[in-house]
Amino acid sequence: MISVIMSVYNAGDYLKDSINSLLQQTEKDFELIIINDGSTDNSEEVILSFHDERIRYIKHEENKGVAHTRNEGLKLAKGDFITFHDADDLSLPHRFERLLAEFCCEHIGYVHSDMLLINENDSPFSYWQTGNISPDDIYPFFLNVGTPFNNASILFRKEAVENLYYDESIKVGSDTDFVLKVAKGGWRSSHVPEPLYLYRRHQMNLTKNRSYDDLAKHIQLNIKEENLKTLKEVGEDVENRLLAAKLIAGLALSRRWMTREGYALFYEAIPLVKTERDRRFFEGMKGLVEKNYAHAVHHFQQIENRNHLEENYLGEALLHMRKYKEAYDQFLRALQLSPNYHTPVKNLKVIGILRGYNLIDKHADPFR
User: Fold this and answer.
1) What CATH number does the domain containing 311 carry?
2) Which pLDDT tens digit goes with each residue over 24-34?
3) Are residues 193 and 78 in the same domain?
4) SS3 letters for 105-143?
5) What total of structural domains would you count in the chain?
6) 52 Cβ neighbours under 8 A, 6+ residues apart
7) Ranges for the Glycosyltransferase 2-like domain (predicted)?
8) For 178-229, how does the pLDDT look when each residue is reduced to its tens digit (9 = 90+)?
């Protein structure tokens, strides 16, 4: 059985269609836990208009927040699988059946899909594609991009979320923080490359008027030293591992909008610089952050017998300078030194995309 947890707060305009999209699933074995989180509109009226024994209704007199209601749902859930469904979104009729079919192995802890984005008038306006990613790559992806999944589309095996809860102190990004907690369990994911979930974007659910700290808190909670020490990219053979981890994470965050946290990691790394090699690597990474790529290349090239990290980030500096062949050579050298190092593989992909991109899926071509 699947437990579907739906937090509702003033979603009356979309709630009927959202609930119907669940009750009309081809997979019938599920419970729908609806938690009305202090709504002041007609949400309760809409909920009570449904008479289906699979619905379990809980009402809050005051708003406690989506993280709190999802935690309440997790405690109430009786299913072998768990998913969260926003009260303004829609699921395609075969979504649950399609996702369940992917749980073919015991090590798969969660299955996710692509999403079609729709607006308040049910008009599609964008497509969010995702893919499979290994457990070791999830934390680096989080630093560089954010969550590697369409979080709203995920169906979890219950064992994967056992004793895990949302951090109620996080106002933005609590779902990403939750997925990271699941990923730390070493569970593998499976991806369905179809838009099984229709994610609604409208004025009420757009992130706005949030403070920087609200937006950044889930990042701040996940860049502590105990997290950075798990960064597989560094490798066991790098002597000053914490220095490397702080600089790699600092670079990743500075390339996003998290410049304050990125720069803070660089400042924290300064006392860890002990040798001339450390200094050269620090200066090279600093050049990447400051977009002074000639400076970065100069310092990386001064390092003798470069390790896999130094070769890769030298390649990244050259790639920024559009020196594709030289960057290509550096990424290959990094892989020769560390065949399981994933970052240069991703950088080879970047070179290919920059030079020319071909999508095998040609379904859209006739309609262009």
Assistant:
1) 1.25.40.10
2) 999 999 999 99
3) yes
4) CCCEEEEEEEEEEECCCCCEEEEECCCCCCHHHHHHHHH
5) 2
6) 23, 32
7) 3-146
8) 999 998 899 999 999 999 999 998 765 555 567 888 888 889 889 899 889 8
